[in-house]
Amino acid sequence: MRQCGSIVLHYRFFFHQSIQHLNGFGKLIARYESVFAFGKCVERCFFFYQLLVLQCFSIKAVIAGQVPVPVIVHNAFVLRIGGKKQATNRKKSQGCLHKKFVTLTDLKIQLIQRNSSIHCNYFTFKTTKLFTMPANLSQRIKSIQQQLSVPQSGVFDITTANALCSVMKINGGTSLTTKTKAIQRGVGVTDDGIIGPITVSRIEALLQPKLPAIPAGASMAVSIASLQLIINAEVSSKEAYTAKYQSPVWPGGDSGVTIGIGFDIGYCSRQDFMNAWSAHLSQQHLDMLLNVLGKKGAACKQIIPSLKVIKVSYDTAVQVFYQHTLPACARDVRRIYPGVQKLPPDTQGALLSLLYNRGPLINDSDRRKEMKALIPLVAAGDIKGVAAQLRSMKRLWTEIKQNGVIIQKGMKGLIIRREQEAVLAENGSFNILPENIVTV
Fold this sequence. Notes:
Layout: E1 8-12, E2 28-32, E3 34-37, E4 40-44, E5 50-51, E6 59-61, E7 69-71, E8 77-81, E9 111-113, E10 116-118, E11 122-126, H1 135-148, H2 158-168, H3 176-186, H4 197-206, E12 221-223, H5 224-235, H6 238-244, E13 258-259, E14 263-264, H7 270-277, H8 283-290, H9 314-336, H10 345-358, H11 369-380, H12 383-392, E15 400-402, E16 405-408, H13 412-426, E17 437-439
Parallel strand pairs: 2-8
Antiparallel strand pairs: 1-11, 2-5, 3-4, 6-7, 9-10, 12-17, 13-14, 15-16
Helix pairs in contact: 1-4, 2-3, 5-10, 7-9, 9-10, 10-13, 11-12, 12-13
């Protein structure tokens, strides 16, 4: 048994009754031996199987001397095409197969339902992509359906697609075809709408609720989406980096002088700084930056103009980001928040983004209240609690006025970043493809 593609069939009919009688027909349940397209037999199907989900998409009746009239069918009937064998008997109340066949150029097909014989000049319909699953795929789909807690029919139906879209947090539209294509795009395969071995294999990989083993030297398993969040929040894009961030900057607030992709000199040791940058900067530029090592806050604003002679290319910034900054930050996250490696990759990545931005300092001050409150939440695996604390931090960058005077300057960028991290954290799932996970 194989998957059948989408085929447009054209049949010539003869009138017996009014075209209005076509209203009321619905999903087609068909047994057939031959498939005809444009008046030619394109495939012989001697295995004579039953199509369970053949469905009308468009039916037009062309009446002599009149404009084509669209006809929608709703009820069920049984269709026999080109058969030389007598069809199995069915109760007429369910619709029965009638033995009636003429020629390829002048097909006469009789449709029987409740003793009504209906014929029209032209009858065009389009089949769905999938009819009957091969036995091996059917078993695999049953396993997928079991994991999704939906009826185990062995057919990739609309219920299965809905459940999978929910797991993947995607909107696949309203039809089975659009949902299938959306799922295929989500798992990184060609969106042809065919549920074959490749698509099934990718869905199976998605539904494996386990993280890859963290190798020696790595600290966390984060999602690619979370790494992209960090890069977007720090420098936006290569073009933006080239225009704004090639030279050292001071982002404001409690930050120190920052170079590359968010490498904050105010919060690193001399050794960490040299490990990351000694191979990329001249000794003169290294010395200039070492002079501002550990400085934070508004004092850095006065220093920035003297550092504009230092230039770090985007490629160098990315290299340092992946080889030094990110792994060092991941070690801090693992040290400060025990159990973080057991959280979903998106949630781990949200915490990595947080520390990348705010640094690893934990104390009892009001500004670090939420950072400290995260410790037991991470240990307990409470991803909703983690998201709540990330959102609570927005208070630190919300503009506050007193008697018309700004006493706390607003920082919209950080408010947006905390919200993005919170959304990532609370929607974290172990149902993620291996290639979308990075160990750092």
